[in-house]
Design brief:
The chain has 175 residues and is of the alpha/beta class. 54% of the residues lie in helices and 21% in strands. The chain has a single domain, classed as 2-Layer Sandwich (Nucleotidyltransferase, domain 5). The protein has helices at residues 41-59, 75-94, 104-111, 119-129, 138-174; strands at residues 2-7, 12-21, 24-34, 63-67, 99-102. It has a five-stranded mixed β-sheet. Helix 2 (75-94) links the parallel strand 4 (63-67) and strand 5 (99-102). Helix 1 (41-59) packs parallel to helix 2 and helix 4 crosses helix 5 (138-174). The longest helix is centred in the C-terminal third of the chain and has 37 residues, at 138-174. Mg(2+) 1 binds at residues 7, 139. Mg(2+) 2 binds at residue 67. It holds the Pfam family RuvC.
Length: 175
Protein backbone atom coordinates (compact mmCIF):
# COMPACT_ATOMS: atom_id res chain seq x y z
CA UNK A 1 0.00 0.00 0.00
CA UNK A 2 1.31 3.44 -0.94
CA UNK A 3 0.52 6.19 1.57
CA UNK A 4 0.89 9.96 1.24
CA UNK A 5 1.53 11.62 4.60
CA UNK A 6 0.96 15.36 5.01
CA UNK A 7 2.25 17.73 7.70
CA UNK A 8 0.22 20.86 6.91
CA UNK A 9 1.47 24.42 7.20
CA UNK A 10 0.52 27.69 5.55
CA UNK A 11 4.15 28.37 4.56
CA UNK A 12 5.68 24.88 4.47
CA UNK A 13 3.56 21.78 3.95
CA UNK A 14 5.61 18.64 4.38
CA UNK A 15 4.87 15.51 2.41
CA UNK A 16 6.15 11.97 2.64
CA UNK A 17 5.35 8.94 0.55
CA UNK A 18 5.92 5.42 1.78
CA UNK A 19 5.07 1.99 0.51
CA UNK A 20 4.25 -0.82 2.87
CA UNK A 21 4.06 -4.53 2.19
CA UNK A 22 3.44 -6.86 5.10
CA UNK A 23 5.53 -5.39 7.89
CA UNK A 24 8.10 -3.80 5.58
CA UNK A 25 8.21 -0.07 4.83
CA UNK A 26 9.93 1.55 1.88
CA UNK A 27 10.60 5.25 1.36
CA UNK A 28 9.28 6.59 -1.96
CA UNK A 29 9.68 10.38 -1.73
CA UNK A 30 9.53 13.33 0.66
CA UNK A 31 9.84 17.09 0.61
CA UNK A 32 7.93 20.29 1.16
CA UNK A 33 5.43 22.38 -0.73
CA UNK A 34 6.68 25.91 -0.07
CA UNK A 35 4.63 29.09 -0.30
CA UNK A 36 5.69 32.67 0.14
CA UNK A 37 4.45 34.67 3.11
CA UNK A 38 4.30 37.61 0.67
CA UNK A 39 1.48 35.89 -1.24
CA UNK A 40 -2.08 36.38 -0.02
CA UNK A 41 -3.54 33.42 1.87
CA UNK A 42 -5.89 32.32 -0.96
CA UNK A 43 -2.90 32.03 -3.32
CA UNK A 44 -0.94 30.01 -0.74
CA UNK A 45 -3.91 27.66 -0.29
CA UNK A 46 -4.07 27.12 -4.05
CA UNK A 47 -0.35 26.30 -4.13
CA UNK A 48 -0.84 23.73 -1.34
CA UNK A 49 -3.88 22.19 -3.05
CA UNK A 50 -2.20 22.05 -6.45
CA UNK A 51 1.03 20.67 -4.94
CA UNK A 52 -0.77 17.84 -3.16
CA UNK A 53 -2.86 17.13 -6.26
CA UNK A 54 0.33 16.92 -8.37
CA UNK A 55 1.90 14.48 -5.88
CA UNK A 56 -1.20 12.29 -6.03
CA UNK A 57 -1.16 12.33 -9.82
CA UNK A 58 2.56 11.51 -9.98
CA UNK A 59 2.80 8.83 -7.28
CA UNK A 60 -0.71 7.30 -7.20
CA UNK A 61 -1.04 6.72 -3.45
CA UNK A 62 -3.86 4.50 -2.20
CA UNK A 63 -4.46 6.55 0.95
CA UNK A 64 -3.64 9.91 2.46
CA UNK A 65 -2.95 10.67 6.12
CA UNK A 66 -2.72 14.14 7.61
CA UNK A 67 -1.81 15.54 10.99
CA UNK A 68 -4.62 17.15 12.96
CA UNK A 69 -4.41 20.70 14.27
CA UNK A 70 -3.39 20.45 17.89
CA UNK A 71 -1.55 23.60 18.82
CA UNK A 72 -1.05 27.08 17.45
CA UNK A 73 0.58 30.26 18.70
CA UNK A 74 -2.67 32.18 18.40
CA UNK A 75 -6.14 32.01 16.88
CA UNK A 76 -4.98 33.53 13.58
CA UNK A 77 -2.25 30.90 13.23
CA UNK A 78 -4.73 28.13 14.03
CA UNK A 79 -7.10 29.39 11.35
CA UNK A 80 -4.34 29.53 8.71
CA UNK A 81 -3.22 26.03 9.66
CA UNK A 82 -6.82 24.81 9.40
CA UNK A 83 -7.12 26.34 5.94
CA UNK A 84 -3.87 24.67 4.84
CA UNK A 85 -5.14 21.31 6.13
CA UNK A 86 -8.42 21.78 4.27
CA UNK A 87 -6.60 22.56 1.00
CA UNK A 88 -4.60 19.35 1.27
CA UNK A 89 -7.63 17.28 2.35
CA UNK A 90 -9.70 18.55 -0.58
CA UNK A 91 -6.95 17.52 -3.01
CA UNK A 92 -7.01 14.01 -1.53
CA UNK A 93 -10.79 13.73 -1.50
CA UNK A 94 -11.05 15.08 -5.07
CA UNK A 95 -8.67 12.30 -6.15
CA UNK A 96 -10.89 9.71 -4.48
CA UNK A 97 -8.44 8.86 -1.71
CA UNK A 98 -9.50 7.83 1.77
CA UNK A 99 -8.13 10.52 4.10
CA UNK A 100 -7.23 9.71 7.71
CA UNK A 101 -6.41 12.25 10.40
CA UNK A 102 -4.02 11.65 13.30
CA UNK A 103 -3.06 13.77 16.29
CA UNK A 104 0.58 14.44 17.09
CA UNK A 105 0.20 12.14 20.10
CA UNK A 106 -1.00 9.29 17.85
CA UNK A 107 1.82 9.87 15.36
CA UNK A 108 4.52 9.92 18.04
CA UNK A 109 3.06 6.82 19.71
CA UNK A 110 2.99 4.90 16.43
CA UNK A 111 6.51 5.87 15.38
CA UNK A 112 8.43 6.11 18.67
CA UNK A 113 6.17 4.25 21.09
CA UNK A 114 5.79 7.30 23.34
CA UNK A 115 3.23 10.04 22.66
CA UNK A 116 5.32 12.80 24.21
CA UNK A 117 8.52 12.00 22.34
CA UNK A 118 10.74 14.86 21.20
CA UNK A 119 10.83 15.83 17.52
CA UNK A 120 14.42 14.62 17.34
CA UNK A 121 13.33 11.15 18.50
CA UNK A 122 10.61 11.04 15.84
CA UNK A 123 13.07 12.09 13.15
CA UNK A 124 15.58 9.45 14.25
CA UNK A 125 12.94 6.69 14.20
CA UNK A 126 11.71 7.78 10.75
CA UNK A 127 15.29 7.56 9.47
CA UNK A 128 15.71 4.14 11.09
CA UNK A 129 12.36 2.68 9.99
CA UNK A 130 12.85 3.82 6.39
CA UNK A 131 16.62 3.17 6.30
CA UNK A 132 17.38 6.75 5.24
CA UNK A 133 20.76 8.46 5.52
CA UNK A 134 19.02 11.77 6.35
CA UNK A 135 15.82 13.73 5.90
CA UNK A 136 16.45 17.22 4.64
CA UNK A 137 13.37 18.97 6.05
CA UNK A 138 11.76 18.71 9.48
CA UNK A 139 8.32 19.07 7.87
CA UNK A 140 9.07 16.19 5.49
CA UNK A 141 10.14 13.98 8.41
CA UNK A 142 6.89 14.82 10.20
CA UNK A 143 4.91 13.93 7.07
CA UNK A 144 6.72 10.60 6.75
CA UNK A 145 5.89 9.94 10.42
CA UNK A 146 2.19 10.59 9.67
CA UNK A 147 2.33 8.10 6.79
CA UNK A 148 4.06 5.52 9.02
CA UNK A 149 1.39 6.09 11.68
CA UNK A 150 -1.33 5.38 9.12
CA UNK A 151 0.44 2.24 7.95
CA UNK A 152 0.64 0.91 11.51
CA UNK A 153 -2.95 1.99 12.29
CA UNK A 154 -4.54 0.19 9.32
CA UNK A 155 -5.25 -3.10 11.15
CA UNK A 156 -6.99 -1.20 13.94
CA UNK A 157 -8.91 0.95 11.43
CA UNK A 158 -10.01 -2.21 9.58
CA UNK A 159 -11.22 -3.79 12.82
CA UNK A 160 -13.17 -0.65 13.73
CA UNK A 161 -14.78 -0.53 10.27
CA UNK A 162 -15.84 -4.19 10.55
CA UNK A 163 -17.23 -3.55 14.03
CA UNK A 164 -19.18 -0.52 12.84
CA UNK A 165 -20.52 -2.44 9.85
CA UNK A 166 -21.58 -5.36 12.06
CA UNK A 167 -23.23 -3.01 14.56
CA UNK A 168 -25.04 -1.22 11.74
CA UNK A 169 -26.31 -4.50 10.31
CA UNK A 170 -27.64 -5.61 13.69
CA UNK A 171 -29.53 -2.36 14.06
CA UNK A 172 -31.07 -2.78 10.63
CA UNK A 173 -32.26 -6.31 11.39
CA UNK A 174 -34.00 -5.14 14.59
CA UNK A 175 -36.25 -2.72 12.72
Amino acid sequence: MRILGIDPGSRLTGYGLIEGRGNHLRHVDNGVIATSSKDPLPQRLKIIHDGVAALIEEFHPEAMAIESVFLAKNAQSALKLGHARASAIIAGVNAGLPVAEYSALQVKSAVVGYGKAAKSQVQQMVKTLLNLPEISQEDAADALAVAICHFHSRPLNNQLARLQAATGRRRETRR
